[in-house]
Amino acid sequence: MMSEMIREDGRKYNELRPIKIEAGVLERADGSAYLEVGGNKILVAVYGPRESYIRRLLEPNTGVIRCRYNMAPFSVDDRKRPGPDRRSSEISKITADALRPALMLENYPRSMVDIYIEVIEAEGGTRCAGITAASIALVDAGIPMKDIVVGCAAGKVNDEIILDLSEVEDKEGQADVPIAMMPRTGEITLLQSDGDLSQEEFEEAINLAMEGCRKVNEIQKEALMKKYSAEMSD
What we know:
By secondary structure, this protein is an alpha+beta fold.
């Protein structure tokens, strides 16, 4: 049975927040992207593939991906302490892990791809938004990929499974299930779960998050088409 729930911001249970994505917004990066979803504003820069100055990180048969996720001190209501913390280090790692399966790094042995994710404003769901924007920046950098990775979350609020939790829903809700996937094959590259869910609710949340990923992927493709059609017309 479909839920009749209407959320505080007026969305239905399976409705995404407004999304805006732009590709190629930074001239000095090899690839870049800007994303807005709800109150989130995220900027991503990609550099590489290039030879790393850190020799111990190089792999003889493949390239290496590194990711740095950072929230600006002014991105949240309570000013965040500048610099890396435990949460940003964790999100940096899982973002790299989520993107790695899509990258054809075997084409670039002994090289490094660096991804910098800067959260300018935060309003819930920044890890999924960062993955979504980073994937666009990687495409913009011309790095061969099997598919565009996209992130989205579902969760449980007031005993209802809903899509794309806002910050308030994330903080006050009962559960959160962020995922990342490659839409072409349906392969899930990130799956996390936090909170209290039955087996049935967990499966419902995953299916709803995958549905959200497919919707966001259409916006990703539109952003790339807009960028490259503009380049061709110049």
